[in-house]
Amino acid sequence: MQLTFLLTVAALAAPTLAHQHHNHNTTVGPEHGSLVIVGGNLQRSDIWQRIISLAGGPDAPIVVIPTAGGEATYDQNFSSAVTLRQQGANKVTVLHTYDPAVADTEEFVAPLREAKGIFFGGGRQWRIVDAYAGTKTEKAFQAVLGRGGVISGSSAGASIQGSFLARGDTKSNQVMVGDHTVGFGYLKNAAIDQHVLVRNRHFDMFDILKAYPKLLGVAIDEDTALEVHKNNATVIGSTYAIVYDGKFWSREEGYVKTIPPPEARFYFLRPGDVYDLALREVIQPNGTVPLNG
Ligand SMILES: *[C@@H]1O[C@H](CO)[C@@H](O)[C@H](O)[C@H]1NC(C)=O
Ligand SMILES: *[C@@H]1O[C@H](CO)[C@@H](O)[C@H](O)[C@H]1NC(C)=O
Ligand SMILES: *[C@@H]1O[C@H](CO)[C@@H](O)[C@H](O)[C@H]1NC(C)=O
Ligand SMILES: *[C@@H]1O[C@H](CO)[C@@H](O)[C@H](O)[C@H]1NC(C)=O
After folding, report:
1. pTM for the full model?
2. Half-sphere exposure of 30 toward its Cβ, with a 13 Å CA cutoff?
3. Which residues line ligand 2 (CB under 6 A)?
4. Are 226 and 54 spatial neighbours (Cβ–Cβ below 8 Å)?
5. Which residue's alpha carbon is at the smallest distance from atom 13 of ligand 1?
6. What is the architecture, at CATH level 2, of domain 30-158+193-284?
7. DSSP 18-48
8. What band does 22 get if pLDDT is binned at 50, 70 and 90?
9. Which of 211, 281, 232 is nearest to 37 (CA)?
10. By the number of CB atoms within 10 A of the CB, which of 56, 82, 94, 274 ranks highest?
C-alpha cells in the first residue's frame, strides 16, 4: 500500500522523465486541418456547428459521404446532409459510389476539389474502404486537411479516421480485428471505436490491442466527439471518451487506486479534457477533485 503510494507520487512528480519515453515531435493527428470524430448518434447542434465552423463557416463547401450505410442509392437529401443544411451550411453535396473505378475518375472527384469539410456517415466502415481506398477520391479527402479544412464523421465515419480500422469485418460488427484492418489514418497509430458506453463496448478494444499493442486505442460514446488539432484531442459533446494507452489517469489529486495491469487499463475523459495524442497523456484536465473533496 505504502509502496504503491510512493511510486504514484514519484510518477506524478517526474512528468519530464515520462516524456522522454515518447518522441515529442511525432504528429499523430493531422499536420494541417482538423478532425471531428463522433461516437455515433450525433444529435447535438453544438457538434454540428463545430464541424461547420472548422470547415470555414456557412459558405464553406462540405461533402457528405453516405457510403457506409449500404443503401442501394443515395440522393442529395441523405439525412446528414439535410441536418447540415438545417444547421446553416449552404453548400452541402452528397457524394457516393460503391465502385472504386468510378471513385478514381476526375468527374466523380470534382465536388471534393474545393471542399473544406467532409462528413462520413454511419454504417459499416469497410464499405468506405472498398469504395474509396487508393483512389483519387481518397487522395482528395486527404487534400481537404492539406488546405486547412475539417474531416468529420460519426460511428463508421469515426472508425474510418484511424490508421487501424476497428470493427472492419464484413460478416459482423462484433469482430474487432476483421477482414479489413486499414483505415484512412487521419489519426495515425490509432484505433477508434464508437457507441462505447451506450453499448457496453469498453472491453472490446483489448481484442485489437492484444494483437497490436503499440496502437493508441480511443473509444467515443454517442453524441460525443474528439476534436483534433495536430496532437491535441479535446472531448466535446454529451458524455465521455475512453483512452487505452496502458496508463491510468484520474482528476482526483494525489490518487492511490487499485488498478489492473497496463494491458487491461483504460480511463475516461469528459468534455473539456484535452489529451496529447503523441505524449499519450492528459494535458489539460477539465477540473480536478482535491483530496478530501
Ligand atoms: C524529432 O525528434 C528527433 C529526436 O527524437 C530529432 O532527431 C528530430 O530532428 C526531430 N525532428 C523535428 C522535425 O523536430
Ligand atoms: C430534397 O428536398 C428538397 C426539400 O424538401 C426538395 O425540394 C428536393 O426535391 C429533394 N431532392 C431530392 C433529390 O429528393
Ligand atoms: C494544445 O493544447 C494546449 C493546452 O490547452 C495548448 O496550449 C496548445 O496551444 C494546443 N495546441 C494546438 C495545436 O491546439
Ligand atoms: C467540463 O465538464 C463539465 C462536466 O462534464 C461540463 O459541464 C463542462 O461543460 C465542461 N467544460 C468544458 C469547457 O467543456
Report:
1. 0.90
2. 26
3. 75-77
4. no
5. 25
6. 3-Layer(aba) Sandwich (3.40)
7. HHTTS-TT---S-SSSEEEEE-S----HHHH
8. very low
9. 232
10. 94
